Amino acid sequence: xxxxxxxxxxxxxxxxxxxxxxxxxxxxxxxxxxxxxxxxxxxxxxxxxxxxxxxxxxxxxxxxxxxxxxxxxxxxxxxxxxxxxxxxxxxxxxxxxxxxxxxxxxxxxxxxxxxxxx
Amino acid sequence: xxxxxxxxxxxxxxxxxxxxxxxxxxxxxxxxxxxxxxxxxxxxxxxxxxxxxxxxxxxxxxxxxxxxxxxxxxxxxxxxxxxxxxxxxxxxxxxxxxxxxxxxxxxxxxxxxxxxxx
DNA sequence: CTCCTAATTAGTAATAGTTACTAATATTAG
DNA sequence: CTAATATTAGTAACTATTACTAATTAGGAG
Lengths: 118, 118
What we know:
2 copies of one chain form a homodimer. With 118 residues, chain A is of the alpha+beta class. Chain A folds into 2 domains: 3-66, Arc Repressor Mutant, subunit A (Orthogonal Bundle); 74-117, Dna Ligase, domain 1, CATH 3.30.1490. Chain A is built from 5 helices and 5 strands, in the order αααββββαβα. In chain A, the strands form 2 sheets. Chain A has a 3-stranded mixed beta sheet with strand order 4-3-5, with no helix packed on it. In chain A, strand 3 (74-76) and strand 4 (83-85) form a beta hairpin. In chain A, helix 2 packs across helix 3 (37-49). The longest helix of chain A has 13 residues, at 37-49. Chain A is globular, with a radius of gyration of 15 Å. At the A-B interface, helix 4 and strand 5 of A face helix 4 and strand 5 of B. Strand 5 of chain A pairs antiparallel with strand 5 of chain B. Chain A binds a DNA duplex (30 and 30 nucleotides) through residues 1-2, 4-5, 20-22, 34-39, 41-43, 45, 60-63.
């Protein structure tokens, strides 16, 4: 495992905001200034394929990455684009209805608290 | 409403396979041979914004369009990429859990019957 | 430790899906 | 019919992502 890959994984694990590849690349550049965006994409993809992190796909936007591998739905704010986790209740209700299938993407569009205030 | 727009809407309404912009463009070219792909995209977007058709966003693939405006989940076959509607039961269970929110995207990945046979 | 091989990288080019732009054409209201 | 407006075809541009390549780097055997 190269230091680049290790730094990318650390960046995903440190973040709580479901970052996209670009954001992760910017974060890792604090440590490795000339890391390539391609390297970030390749490693994020590999880490996701290996089940170490999770790729989350949101409508009309870059893919995001999640340190939490346990599947769960997400809320996307239509104003700022921020992503947060959907409540356990909704996730459980969905999974119960789906049966044993754990391969799904659920994205609910809802304005976040910060954007509502404005 | 231009004849292009009318043809695009008709193509979406005629199809049962949740076609993407490219597929719709090819279909419409049977009637209007030199219609531009840009025109197809623009009109599909507008029709979706106006609530006349529905845009469905699938992970890692082109957006697809649905004549059914009533929100519901979809099944994407990981082998052939085909899209079909999720059962009413699952959709209802999800909507009950979500409350009044009708703005969501649910995509379940499951191999379709045709691909299973191979 | 050193050499070899295989993996990985940075950087760039290429690709897919989509939107933006523009001059020309078509539609609509008066 | 005519002027204003909307829409088009065609092309260029853009974003997210993957592919390619030569150079660098790990990791293992001796």
